Automatic annotation (TrEMBL):
Keywords: Cell membrane, Glycoprotein, Membrane, Transmembrane, Transmembrane helix. This is Major facilitator superfamily (MFS) profile domain-containing protein. It comes from Exocentrus adspersus. It is a multi-pass membrane protein. One of its GO terms (molecular function) is transmembrane transporter activity.
């Protein structure tokens, strides 16, 4: 196990509560749709079933908020620091859950979803950045992929408690998570040394690094000097460099392609509509139990990638993940093809939906679900990192919005089988792209990564190149 100081681990754990708050919003719709379609006013606070159009907006408005969210929170992070920006992200999460707890008309649910989306987009942009900036080179991958565990926990909670609680109490319970984060992080959270050095707050940066590493001032001086040298190299960088410099254009293309592949692999559509998918499949298990099983798999499998990422590397895990999701979606599409387009009896194979979705979640969590976000925080110098990360994040949420808003229309045109086969083709394309173009950043410092990109080294998987002294 790669070691990290106790305070760094504590800091990562605390900010990951915000990751959980964010991904709750993704699977929130799965149990809530069932209640909002009910005609029973004791279950449905609207007093009437929602329409198909309202169904689509409840899913897609979250992604509209997430498209906008990266920009304001990135500006706050740049001007006031990562800590203040993360605290600000918690506020719309809290407001969103409280508003939806007491909503009695559809527009308040719309408001809550947009507000939750703002925080979701900001979190996906800043959380990987914060964690990579407080971690050490040798454990940065493990620390970053801890996000995957808490993202998966956020996806799991609605499946675990949503079907068994009223909409009001469900949302009030969810509001406790970002509230707990805000209070704890406000009291003991640390600003990142990279931000403090960039703001020319040298003494505060040293204090922060001493706290994060649980070491004395003398011991952390070498790491501090290395950070200063890295930032000095980036002093003359500007946003225009992303378009002007070949290595940064390449980094942006890699990140955007992988993040679009992640969105178009169908993950948001599947998590939003997990229980309705099982109802359509007519599995022998009830839809809420099936969704709970898949959600449990999502959470438990998320512990695997953080253990492997700094051993096997980002590239191998991503390739394996893409091929695994491809196979699982082909299987799921085949089931719906037999059910919808043949006269064959699908009862003997009604185990296939839950099997394929468990396989999908397992392999998605190994790489495709989180590594593109890590790369967006690793491949760019500090001076352009925030605008690059915001661009990648907004691209993801624009793609997710289009996919979730028109998922039902997509099923009408292509059939459920065609939709899942379309997602499978995207995953296969992502696997081939990763084999050819994806860089390997395992164990490399930010300076080393930039030197690797500048040198045009095409063999990204090798451990060759610069090897500055480790701390």
């Amino acid at each position: 196990m790669l070691k990290a100081s106790g305070y760094t681990l504590l800091s990562v754990f605390i900010v990951n509560l915000l990751a959980t708050s964010g991904d709750i919003t993704l699977s929130w719709t799965s149990p809530i749709y069932i209640q909002l379609y009910s005609r029973d006013p004791s279950i449905n606070p609207l007093g009437r079933p929602i329409t198909d159009d309202e169904d689509g907006w409840l899913g897609s408005l979250l992604t509209i908020g997430a498209i906008v969210g990266p920009l304001p929170f990135s500006l706050i992070a740049e001007k006031f620091g990562r800590k203040i920006a993360l605290l600000c992200i918690a506020v719309p999460h809290i407001i969103s859950y409280i508003v939806m707890a007491f909503a009695r008309n559809i527009y308040l649910f719309y408001f809550g979803r947009i507000f939750g989306g703002l925080a979701l987009g900001g979190g996906y942009t800043l959380l990987p950045m914060y964690i990579t900036e407080i971690s050490e080179d040798h454990n940065r991958g493990m620390m970053s992929l801890s996000l995957n565990i808490f993202w998966a926990l956020g996806n799991f909670l609605p499946y675990a408690i949503g079907p068994f609680m009223s909409i009001m109490w469900f949302n009030l319970v969810l509001a406790c998570i970002p509230t707990a984060f805000f209070i704890i992080f406000l009291v003991i959270g640390s600003e990142t040394p990279y931000y403090l050095l960039g703001a020319n707050k040298i003494e505060q940066a040293e204090t922060s690094l001493v706290k994060l590493r649980s070491l004395s001032n003398d011991v952390v001086q070498k790491e501090l000097e290395f950070m200063k040298a890295h930032l000095k190299d980036d002093e003359d960088s500007h946003f225009s460099d992303i378009l002007r410099k070949a290595e940064l254009r390449k980094a942006l293309v890699i990140c955007v392609f992988l993040i679009v592949a992640q969105a178009m692999s169908g993950y948001c559509a599947i998590t939003f509509y997990l229980q309705p998918i099982f109802e359509a499949a007519g599995t022998s298990l009830s839809s809420d139990i099936s969704a709970l099983i898949v959600g449990s798999t999502m959470f438990l499998s998320s512990f695997v990638a953080p253990v492997l990422v700094d051993r096997l590397g980002r590239k191998i895990l991503t390739i394996f993940s893409c091929f695994g999701t491809f196979v699982s979606l082909v299987i799921l599409g085949s089931f719906f093809y037999v059910q919808d387009f043949t006269i064959l009896d699908s009862d003997p194979i009604n185990w296939m939906p839950i099997f394929s979705l468990i396989l999908y979640i397992l392999t998605f969590n190994f790489g495709l679900g989180s590594i593109p976000w890590i790369l967006s925080s690793e491949l760019f110098p500090n001076s352009v990192k925030q605008i690059a990360a915001s661009t990648v994040s907004s691209t993801f949420w624009i793609t997710s919005f289009l996919l979730t808003r028109f998922f039902n229309d997509m099923n009408d045109v292509l059939g459920k089988a065609g939709s899942f086969w379309f997602f499978a083709i995207i995953c296969l394309a992502a696997a081939l792209f990763s084999i050819i173009y994806m860089p390997e950043t395992k164990g490399k410092s930010f300076s080393e990564i930039q030197e690797m990109l500048r040198s045009g080294n095409k063999d990204f998987g090798k451990e060759e190149g610069l090897h500055p002294e480790k701390f």
